[in-house]
Amino acid sequence: MTPHSSLFTNLDPAPHPLNIHIADGSTMHGNSLGFVSTSTLSVPEVFHDPRTGQELGTGPRVGRMFPVNNLHLPPVAPVSVAAATAAVSSLPSLALWHSRLGHAPSSRYNS
Questions:
Q1: CB of 74 within 8 A of CB of 80?
Q2: Rounded distance, CA 100 to CA 97, Å?
């Protein structure tokens, strides 16, 4: 998924628009689908998201998942240690471990 329409050799409405829910709770919408081609690389089925104006990450599609190989996050305001501790301590134990283990399924760890 990229916001850069200039990279596409063709860009058409997606037959099945893609909604990706990202960590900050917002959703990226891939409403267009196209073919990105350079002199050294051709990538079919790339989604276009013009709203963000930035590339957040890159990675392959594996089934219905997109493992991220390169992550580019915008800077965020610093959070105090007290606020972070309060937020973490309010999570139930199982939910906390679920988050710490990269959202692994519960079958991967014992409660």
A1: no
A2: 5
Q: pLDDT by residue (tens digit) across 33-64?
A: 888 877 766 777 776 766 666 666 677 778 87
Looking at the DSSP bridge assignments, the partners of residue 24 are none
User: What is d(CA 70, CA 58) in angstroms, rounded to the nearest whole number?
Assistant: 5
Of the candidates 79, 97, 98, 76, the residue with the CA atom closest to the CA atom of residue 87: 79
pLDDT of 1-16, one tens digit each? Answer: 777 778 888 888 888 7
Q: What are phi and psi of 69, to 5 degrees?
A: -90, -40
| Domain map (residue ranges) of the chain | 5-71, 77-111
Q: Are 34 and 10 in contact (CB under 8 A)?
A: yes
SS3 94: helix
pTM of the model: 0.39
